[in-house]
Every structure is written in structure tokens, then in C-alpha cells.
Amino acid sequence: MTEEIDRFAGLRPKATGLSKEELLEVLEAFYQDPILCARELLPHWFPLKMPWVHRGIVALIRENPDFLLSFGKEQWRDEDAEWTIEDLKKIESHFVHNGEKLFDITWLDGVPTAINIAVSDKTVIVLPRGFSKTTLFKFDIIFDILYQNPECRVQLFLSETGPHAAAQVNDIRMELQFNEKIIELYGKQAPERQEPQKWTDEEFETLSGMYLISRGRGGQVRGLNRASTRPGKVLFDDLEDEESVATEEQRKKAKRWFMGALERVGKHIGRTVFRGLGTILHYESLIMSIKLDPKWMVLEFGAIDNDGEALWSTAMSLEKIEEVKLSYAARGELSVFYREVMSKMVAAEDMKFRPDMIVHKNFERKDFLAVSLAMDPAISKAKKASLCAFAVTGITPNGHIVVLEAHGKQGMTPREQIDEYFRLHFLWDVTHHGIESIGYQQALIHLMQEEMFRRAKQFGVKAYFEIKGIVHQSDEAKYKRIEGTLQPRYASGYVSHQKVFAEYETALQDWPQSKADIPDAVAMAVTLLDEFAGLAGDDETEGEGFAGEFEDAVGDFRHAP
Known about the structure:
The protein is α/β, with parallel strands linked by helices. 38% of the residues lie in helices and 17% in strands.
């Protein structure tokens, strides 16, 4: 490629105002560092620091990781940033296929000195929607065209429909035709109207003899060639959409076309590389079938990486991800969230709490034989700390359980927890009370006892109630109680919700990956009503020990004046 760069430099000095040596230096720098090239030639496509996951993808599809060692300050259009060793470590630990790291980095005293990369002729990257994956492919195509990569003289770009693929090709065509920096450095690419080269959204040929052809899924690709040359690079981006995966026949049709036509479109002699991008849409989708083929290397990235951090916080922060998750869950589409945002396949039938199990019905307090209130206390304000969770449940004469309240909050002070507990007690005229009682929680029950005396001046005997201390023997016991108490009742249709409890309902559908705090509070509230209906599962984890001791201490509160 050095010869080609030298030839460009020899042709361009008058047009650029740079000497041959200066132009050669620029072209060589861009060739050696594609990120620098993208930042300088296409700042409107890449206005902010390119995240580590995108750089790893560029290195993988260009089969050159050396530029990843260029650490330091970077000036992007809309921000000044820095590429760091910590960023590189993210690539090292997250680009893994079949348990093997794709980026083999040589370290010397904590400093990376060399990188080897494992590549495949057939690679697919799975990313959430909205993560600029298409932009990376368009840049890769432009890069090969500008440097006249002889292996990629003919490139084929595919998407779910012909018009969609053509729209992406049009973006590339417009840059080659009108981007002043590209024209200045690499020369004119677009033919004039009277010149023979084709120049359309469906297909174009540059003045240097580089071809780009677009097709939609199912399009004619057999025997495709230009200038007696078959495609040396085939790029496909989101070949499937919701309609194409809707029925078994459509899914089979897409797979037959992919295997029977597209995979055979390459060169008879020489190398053809296949690069794919996609989002998981169905457990029998094309991407899921490709994953089973050992000839293909498939890498999957969700919106949250393996370290629990946002994959690309600029596109979707952790807060935004949680907001989107709650929105999907509220509409009973959490499995869609996992497919399209987290790049995970979670079928509804595999959920312990399916969306159809969650029913909403409205009741009044007079409809219940008894109402229970449970709290799972917590005081830490740390980001990943437990919630202080509250749950109120009522039971009807026929044994139907209604979740009346289910919510939680991080970092509540003891005063805030006590105030909320009493608020719910009076709001629902609660008859049965419980609080998890381990360590700090035990002390909280004693604070509740003092609060009863203070509130008795205003509310009289209604301010006094017996609290059952509930002890968890272990986290495993907590999970068993949640599944044993709640899942059979939801599955049998014996539970409904007074209203939509987005956070709680998300936790149910996400179980057991979700936080247990709110489900645990609901499970505790349900077990407090067991004397009225024996509908719960295995409740052997219900606490003893401190519970009996505390009941003796506060038993007389119910009879206080």
C-alpha cells in the first residue's frame, strides 16, 4: 500500500497546496490510524470520541490493531478527549470468542508494546440499535475506496431492503462526491454526467475503478461481478427486520437465500471477507443460526458491558438503559428489551414470571379480609446498594392476593423509612406487619416501637401494632422464598396488581437477574397473610428467632390506651 500512497502524493501536491512529502505524510498517517482518518475526514459522522468498542470493531474488520497503541490527547469536532491504556484494557477483556481473547496484547511493566489480533473471513458483530454500527461500516467502505484496496475492488453492501441499502450507499456516494477534504487529499472520485461510470444509489464506480453495489435481503447476487471481478468484501447490516422474522416460513426463506446465494457470492480464486452487523430479533433469526456455524465468528455486545458499565454512555447511559427497560417491562415486552438492547435472547416461555401472569385489577379496602405491610430495610447510598423496599398486600375472602403497594428507594434515612412505614399503615388500615430483622433492621424495629408511643398522642390505639420480625438465613433462602411464595401464585392466577408497579414488574420479568429487594418485600407481605389462605409455596424460610422475642416485647402495644 505504500506504493499507492506515494502515487497519490505525487499526483496531488498542486491541488492540496502541500508538498509531495507533506501530503505523503498525511496520507500515511491516515492509513496507519483509521481513527485519525475518520476524525479528520468525517467529523460530522464522528463528532465525539470514538468509544473503545467501536475502535475494537474497526481494528477487527480492518485486521489491523496497531493504531490502538496511539495513546494520548485527541481533538474531536465537539470535544477534546483522550485515548488511554484503560480504554485498551476494555477491548482486551471484552472482545472474546469461544473463551479466547481476540486481542493478544504484550505488556511490559504495565505498558502495552504490541498487539496481535485473531481475525476471521466471516465475522458478525451484534450491537443494540442506535449504536452507530452502520456508520462504522460506511467508513470502512470509504477507507477501502480511498486507498484503492485491490482486494476490495468490488464491494457489496446489503440491508433488509433494497431502498434501505441504497440509502446507505447514497451517504457514501455523497461524501466521495462533495466532501472537500476527501477531494483535496485523494482526488476526484465521482464521474461527470457524460462519463461512462455508473453513479447511482444502487451502484457506483469511482474514477479510480472501485465499485460499490447495494442489494436488499433476497436480492439477486448470484454470479455478481464487475470488470470480471467478484466481490472481495461483502458487508451486511441488519439483514432482518420484524416482518422477516414474524413467521417460520419467512425465517427459513431468509436462511435459504443467505446460505444458497449470499455466502457463495465471493471470488472463485482469492479471498472474500464477509462482515456483518445486526441486532437480535428472534431466537430462530438468521444471526442466531449463524452463531451455530463454526465458520463464523459472532461477537455480541449489549448496552451494558461485562463490568456493569454502559457500553457507550454517550448513546445510552445506565440511567437511560434502566428507563428503557422499565418502559418495555410496563408494556409486557421485556424479552424485546433483552434482544434489541442487551443482545440477549430471553424467550417469554423461559421466564418464571411471564408478562401474561401480571394482571391489573382495582379493589377497595373493604374487599379484603386482611392487609399486610412488609419492609426490607436498607440505608446505603452506594450506586449498587440494595433498595429499602415496601410492599402492601391484601387478601380477599376467596384467597385472591392483591399487591396494593410495591416500591423501593435507595439511601433512605431511618426517619424516612419509619415515616413511609407509618404512611402505608394508615393508608391501607394494615392488619399484619413485618420487617426483615437482621443487624440494623433489628434496631429499626425498636425505633418503630418508640414511634408508636409518639404517634399514639394523635392516632390513639391505631398507632399501636404488632410487628413480626422476619429473618433470612441466607441470600439463597431469600431467593427460594421469592420463587416459592410468588411464582406458584402468579402462575395459578391468584395474584393481581392494584396498579402498574413498573419497577416491581420489571424485576419479576427479569427474575432472577434483577434485584431481589422489592420482590422480597412482596413475598414477605404475602407470607404474613398465610393464616387466611394456604396458597403459598414453600415458605420454610420464614423467620424465627428474633421474631418471637420481639413479639413478646411489643405484644402489649395493641392494648395500650
